[in-house]
Amino acid sequence: MNPLVSVICISYNHAPYIKEALNSVFNQAYTEIEVIVLDDGSSDASVDEIKKLILDRSEVAFIANTKNTGYTRTFNKGLALAKGKYIVDFALDDVMFPNFLNESLKQLEALGEGYGVCFSNADYINSVSKVIGNHNDSLRSKKLISEIPQGDIFEMVLKRYFICTPTMVIRKSVFDRIGGYDEALAYEDFDFWVRSSRYFKYTFVDKVLMQKRKLKTSMSALRYKHAENAQMLSVFMVCEKAFHLCKTADEFKALNLRLAYEHRQCVRNNFLDLADRYFSLIKLTKGNLVKIKLTEYLIRLGVDRKAF
Fold this sequence. Notes:
Blueprint: E1 5-11, H1 18-26, E2 33-39, H2 46-53, E3 61-64, H3 71-79, E4 86-91, E5 95-96, H4 100-111, E6 115-125, E7 131-134, H5 135-141, H6 154-159, E8 169-171, H7 172-178, H8 189-199, E9 201-213, H9 230-245, H10 249-268, H11 272-300
Parallel strand pairs: 1-2, 1-4, 2-3, 6-9
Antiparallel strand pairs: 4-8, 5-9, 6-7, 6-8
Helix pairs in contact: 1-2, 7-8, 8-9, 9-10, 9-11, 10-11
C-alpha cells in the first residue's frame, strides 16, 4: 500500500499564484495525498481563490486565519491535522512538477527510517511563471558548493544554505522528534535543517521537481531592510541552538564560520547589538573547540579521561 502524504499548503497574499500552485498539487502522479490548505490572514483575494478551487473537493481541509499569525504557527496548525506518513510544506506561490512526490517517495521508501528528508533541485520562476534560473546552478556558479551533500549533513548546513526548501518531503517522524516548527522564529527552514539533521539523514534527488517563485517582496529579499529585523534575530536564535547540538571539533568549526559570517552581516547593516551577541557566541564556540582539541590530545597521550 502506498503511504499517505499530507501536503500542507499555505497562502499569504498569494492570490495571483494560487490556481497554478494548487492545481500542481491536484495533478500529482502520486495519488495517496491529503491536502490541507491554510490562509494566514491574507488581505488580497487569496481566500476567495482557494474556495473556488476546492469547491468540488470536499476532501480538502481549509482553515482561514482571521489575522496574520506568521508562517510557523500557521504550518503547525496544519501539521496538527496531518495524518500522512510524509509531510510536504508547500507555499501557494510555488509549483510542483507532476512527478515530484513519486520521485521523492521512491527514494525515501528505499532508504528507510534513518533518512528523514528528501530534497531535490528546482527552477526559479518570476511573477509571470517564467524560468529565471536554477537552484543548483546558482550555487555552483557562486562556488558555494561543488557537490550536493547527502547523509549526515548537520555540519554542512551550519556552513551554508544549499537546500531548496519547497523541494523537501519529510517523514512525519521527524516532526514528532523535533516538535514541529519553532513558533518563536520568523521563518522556519534554517532551524528545521539544523535540528532535524542532528537526528536524521537527508537524501537528494538530482532532478528538477519543483519551481520556486522569486519575488522582490519575499521575506528573504527584505532581510536587511528593517531596523528591527525578526529574520536576523531568528538566525541568531538558531545559531544558539546549534551551539548546544554540536558535538565534534569539525562541527564547532562549521558553526564558527556561520557565526563569523552573520556577525559581519550585522556590522555591515548596522545591527550592532546583535553583532555583540554574535561576538559573545563566537568566543564560546572557540572555547568549546579548544576544549575538544585538548581532550583529543590528552586521549592520544593516554591520559585517563577522568583526569580532565
